[in-house]
Design brief:
Helices cover 35% and strands 23% of the residues. It contains eight helices and twelve strands. Strands 3, 4, 5, 6, 7, 10, 11 and 12 form an eight-stranded mixed β-sheet that branches.
Length: 307
């Protein structure tokens, strides 16, 4: 085992593969060929004297040795990036915090928290990225985000089984709601029965290997009719306003619903709860990350009144 000749390029490539989950995605993000990525990983595994990645058909998983290398590589690369920023006259890493967030958090929670942080601590720089829960968890493990806002549904399992376990804090737990066109018969009341959802047309996000179909009321006893497939939550709500169908919505997003959309509760069936989770790696947070976490907690309390 000899890391004296390991290149920084190999460490950056390894971190990108760990975050993206596949050699192909890492190569695309870095602008490399897939063979170049493979060579860098092979050189790092030779230096480690052990496999760092478990190759699977659907992507890669870190081995125990890979987790050790990633944890230390992330620290080295962050220190080098901080040095480069300081030499360039930009704020050091102590003034910067990186946040990942699930798609609908960008409608209300994220801007409200960042606005409050900017008012109280204008010197802090916040950078953000949107992603699915698996992508954000990989980013946390790779050290490319400091905090991540995750959406969680029952049975509320941990987002991954890797070690060390992520520190998870529930910022809010609220019932799932239904967004219906204001002109729709279901909009006449504050709540509707789950049986009334049979035969409706739905606006849903695309399903993938990483995440379930989002936008259809869970547990329907029929195959749903998907009228529109849309990833962006605000675009879904605009389609609802246009009368194109129904979609689900978190309670925290009700204030972001555009004109022409009525947000109602659903009676009957299991109570559909959703949690907003703040996730991070264990260990002490930097001061900027701590202040952003506090702003997210305050914003979550403000926009999530009791059911």
């Amino acid at each position: 085992m000899d890391f004296t000749d390991v290149s920084l390029v190999a460490l950056r490539v390894f971190r990108e593969v760990a975050e993206r989950g596949t050699f192909t995605a890492a190569a695309t993000a870095l602008g490399y060929t897939q063979s170049a990525v493979s060579r860098q990983i092979a050189s790092l595994e030779r230096a480690a004297g052990a496999p760092l990645l478990e190759r699977r058909r659907e992507g890669v998983l870190l081995t125990a040795a890979g987790q050790v290398v990633l944890r230390n590589a992330a620290g080295v690369l962050d220190q080098l990036d901080a040095t480069a920023r300081e030499l360039a006259g930009l704020p050091a890493a102590g003034g910067t915090v990186r946040l990942g967030w699930f798609p609908s958090a960008g409608a209300v929670l994220l801007p409200q928290a960042i606005s409050a942080l900017r008012r109280g601590h204008p010197a802090i720089t916040v950078t953000t990225r949107e992603g699915s829960t698996p992508a954000l968890v990989r980013a946390l493990r790779a050290g490319t985000v400091d905090l991540a806002l995750l959406a969680s549904a029952p049975p509320f399992r941990p987002p991954d089984a890797e070690s060390p376990a992520l520190k998870l804090e529930t910022l809010a737990e609220r019932s799932l709601r239904l967004a219906v066109p204001a002109s729709h018969p279901l909009a006449a009341h504050d709540s509707v029965d789950v049986a009334d959802l049979r035969g409706q047309r739905w606006i849903a996000g695309p399903a993938s290997g990483e995440e379930l179909l989002m936008g259809v009321w869970p547990g329907l006893d029929e195959r749903p009719v998907i009228a529109h497939t849309v990833r962006d939550w605000l675009a879904k709500l605009q389609l609802v306003a246009a009368g194109a169908g129904l979609t689900t919505i978190s309670a925290s997003m009700a204030s972001a619903a555009p004109a022409g959309v009525r947000v109602v509760t659903v009676r009957g069936g299991p109570k559909e709860l959703r949690r907003t989770i703040l996730a991070r790696l264990p260990g002490r947070l930097s001061e900027p990350a701590t202040l952003l976490a506090n702003a997210l907690r305050a914003a979550a309390l403000d926009i999530n009144p009791p059911d």
